Amino acid sequence: MAERVDMAEVFCRFVDRVNEWVGKAVSWIFVPFMILVVIDVTTRLLRHPWYYIDVNTQLMGIMVMMGMAYCHLHDGHIGVDVLVIKLSPKKRAILNLVLAPIFFGSVGVLTWYLATAAVDAVGLLERRTGGLMLPVYPLKIFMATGIFLMLVQGVAKFIRDLKTALAKTEARP
Question: How far apart are CA 169 and CA 140, in angstroms?
Fold first, then answer.
């Protein structure tokens, strides 16, 4: 007899794998970021300021925005654990479901705004003014992609919380 495939769980696992891979891949941006910081600090100490700090700003933006979903996947965001530490997994899931509209409202608006800004930036081939005149549109594409991955990871978390909340028996931590 064939097993019933839980498409929601397949979706959640796929989202988890994508965000795990993206998070690990993006973490490597930290290496050139730190090299550029050391160069910048050294040149400032030698009284020859280096004007490539715009590159670091963009690298940091990519790391933060593309790493958000990875952080959400591993419950790495700031929370008030002291308030929920004694709650059972089912009660935590219910609390997460109650608070989900705040998450989806804010992340949904950000997704829409950043996607629109990315499309506009690509259409204009937007660049920074002054300094190196770096293109801004790649950063905006990464920002829109990162917030979208965060939204999708939130959907996966919502599905799991819903399953936990609706379960007939209390899951053991």
Answer: 45
Helices assigned H by DSSP within 7-77 = 7-27, 30-45, 53-73
Beta-carbon contacts of 92 under 8 Å, excluding residues fewer than 6 positions away, are 84
Distance CA 120, CA 137 (A): 8
CA angle 39, 26, 50 (to 5 degrees): 20
CA–CA separation, 169 and 50 (whole Å): 61
φ/ψ region of 116 (left if φ > 0, alpha if ψ in -120 to 50, else beta) reads: alpha
Check: CB of residue 147 under 8 Å from CB of residue 111.
yes
pTM: 0.84
Give residue-wise pLDDT tens across range 81-111: 777 788 888 998 998 999 999 999 999 999 9
